[in-house]
Write the structure tokens for this entry.
Amino acid sequence: MQIFRTRLYKTQLLRILKHIAKDKISASEKFHTDLEKQINNLTHSPYKCRQSFYSDDENVRDMIFMKYTIQYKIYESKISILKIFNKNKPKEDRYNKT
């Protein structure tokens, strides 16, 4: 099973990493490395995370990592990482509604 990251996810992640790096670059690098490990582990058991609170589709899942929610969708042969956000609710995205 392959993992793909959407443009929205990449943009949001970059913003988060830059914010963390303002305080400590090594913390930003560690956050990114640890997050990638968690995402890559999804290939072994993609349904291990809860069904998303923000979607009725049972294939859309929420992975909690530190204080962030990573929303992803499971397809037959791939996993698509949709977005990453802080707090309990994502901001509305006018370009990519899930």
